[in-house]
Design goal:
alpha/beta
Length: 248
């Protein structure tokens, strides 16, 4: 059975960066086969990982919606979509990547969400670890895109607004009874710990990890360079080591 790690949080807090660094951590520590799923419509996980993604699932769904005649005779739509998804897997050293994307057609995204649920159930069983970079905010939870995760990493920055936002995401996940063995809070881009303790205590998550502000990460982001280019001196990379060990 695959170990499913879901990364969620408010937009702009470094959610995708944390997801990419955790995927790299699994790869570096040779924990097992990894499937990375970019479930954020902004679809930037491939860039963070330094790979070029193939066709997204959203594009596949839209293509079939526009031209149903491409489905071979005797094959159902769901089976054809699954076949196309297998074809669109981006294979890289240490992990494979699937990009959900967002089709332009009205109503298509709900179908993509249903595909994601089926994807985790069918394809993910071929991998020992599945890391899902979820859509920013609470939409993926309210639509019940996620039904099960062994661990959910909630990412925020150190602002009061960000911390309160992640508290709402945490509360919603519990209210919807999403089956999660444990929650982990990752506070990103921390430059000053003062004033954090009270806000953190109000969230109610026991495992908390601080990711320091890192100029290397910022420079790579500005230059659209992959996070694999971080040096061994990166303070964020060192913090991710502790986060990975805390999760697994």
């Amino acid at each position: 059975m695959s170990y499913i790690l879901a990364v969620a949080g408010k937009g702009g807090t470094g959610k995708t960066t944390i997801a990419a660094l955790l995927i790299s951590w699994l790869n570096k520590n040779k924990k097992g086969s990894v499937l990375a799923v970019d479930a954020d419509p902004n679809s930037t996980l491939a860039e963070a990982l330094g790979v070029t993604a193939k066709e997204s699932i959203g594009q596949i769904v839209e293509s079939i919606a526009k031209d149903p005649g491409q489905i071979p005779g005797g094959m159902s739509k769901d089976h054809y979509v699954e076949y196309r998804i297998q074809e669109t897997l981006t294979e890289s050293k240490g992990f494979d990547l699937l990009v959900m994307g967002r089709p332009e057609g009205p109503g298509c995204y709900c179908y993509v969400n249903n595909v994601l649920r089926g994807l985790v159930k069918k394809i993910a069983d071929n991998y020992e670890f599945v890391v899902i970079d979820n859509e920013a905010g609470m939409e993926h939870l309210s639509r019940r895109t996620m039904r099960r995760a062994h661990c959910m990493v909630l990412v925020t920055d150190c602002s009061a607004v960000g911390l309160r936002s992640v508290k709402r995401i945490y509360d919603l996940a519990r209210d919807l009874d999403i089956k999660t063995d444990k929650f982990v809070l990752a506070i990103n881009r921390v430059s000053n710990n003062e004033g954090l303790k009270k806000e953190i205590g109000g969230i109610g998550i026991e495992q908390v990890f601080l990711i320091p502000e890192d100029k290397e990460v910022l420079e790579l982001s500005i230059n659209a360079s992959p996070l694999s280019n971080l040096s061994s001196q990166s303070v964020a990379l060192k913090a991710i080591d502790k986060l990975g060990e805390g999760i697994w």
